[in-house]
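Is this the right way to post structure tokens for a design question? Let me know if I should format differently. Anyway, here goes:
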């Protein structure tokens, strides 16, 4: 998790933002899994002692290589941290999904249009706003201020951008990133990595939208400069003032490189690291479960 922010910056400069999102979220998830598993394993001897299973606790300590750091107090603290971190991540993840539900337009309201399987709604409001609601039936929501105050060409760019969010289920990445931020956001590299994921989701939509509008990246850049939209908290959207500068800078630079052997190598390396982490955590977890269920087979 500690290297994902700087690594994400490098990936984002060289390759399509989609790769930055996938690799950064993957690295964060792997790190979170390893930390949670480590805390749980650290806490097991102390928790077994607390419930009176002293012999099993001793076997568990031998499997783990000796006394755990901090003794019983350290084990209890590790267990408490594991529960708190897990709860915080679930709370952050669920918060985005709940927000998405609240932003969903009731089916009783007739959509303005239907594009590529996505319902487009226009809400009466003097505030310029555009966002996408994910789920089984994705929705693209604009306000009347967007439709009435902006040119049709700009509205078309906004819709193209939102279609990318809907088609690629960006709300899932947003929910995962927010959950990880809720649990580990107090670590500056994690907070920076999650911020880069949010920016990269918008850059991803910008780059893919540029492929279907007449003047490509120039149209997307002009739309960004003229729209000045407001995003919706907990949803992916066309505009967020804090991200506009980074997005314009990205559009002014060279177009991202397509998939290359270097990127393939990076994916393979990340995949191997993730598999190795899962295998180690799975083995340690299995041994711990075996300690409890079949202690006679765990003599070390």
């Amino acid at each position: 998790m500690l290297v994902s922010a700087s690594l994400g910056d490098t990936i984002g400069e060289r390759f399509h933002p989609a790769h930055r999102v996938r690799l950064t979220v993957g690295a964060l998830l792997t790190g979170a899994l390893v930390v949670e598993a480590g805390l749980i394993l650290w806490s097991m001897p102390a928790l077994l002692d607390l419930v009176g299973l002293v012999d099993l606790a001793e076997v568990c300590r031998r499997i783990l290589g000796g006394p755990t750091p901090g003794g019983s107090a350290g084990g209890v603290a590790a267990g408490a941290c594991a529960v708190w971190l897990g709860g915080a991540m679930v709370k952050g993840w669920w918060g985005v999904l709940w927000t998405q539900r609240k932003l969903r337009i009731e089916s009783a309201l007739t959509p303005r249009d239907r594009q590529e399987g996505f319902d487009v709604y226009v809400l009466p409001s003097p505030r310029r706003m555009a966002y996408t609601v994910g789920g089984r039936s994705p929705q693209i929501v604009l306000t009347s201020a967007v439709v009435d105050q902006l040119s049709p060409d700009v509205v078309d760019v906004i819709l193209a951008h939102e279609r990318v969010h809907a088609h690629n289920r960006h709300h899932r990445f947003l929910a995962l990133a927010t959950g990880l931020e809720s649990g580990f956001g107090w670590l500056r590299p994690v907070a920076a990595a999650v911020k880069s994921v949010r920016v990269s989701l918008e850059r991803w939509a910008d780059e893919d939208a540029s492929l279907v509008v007449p003047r490509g990246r120039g149209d997307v850049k002009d739309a960004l400069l003229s729209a000045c939209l407001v995003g919706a908290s907990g949803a992916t959207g066309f505009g967020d003032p804090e991200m506009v500068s980074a997005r314009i800078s990205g559009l002014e630079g060279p177009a991202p490189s397509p998939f290359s052997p270097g990127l393939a190598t990076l994916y393979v390396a990340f995949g191997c690291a993730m598999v190795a982490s899962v295998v180690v955590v799975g083995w340690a977890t299995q041994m711990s479960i075996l300690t409890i269920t079949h202690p006679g087979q765990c003599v070390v």
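Format looks fine. Someone answered above. Worth noting: The chain has one domain: 4-252+259-297. The longest helix spans residues 17-50.
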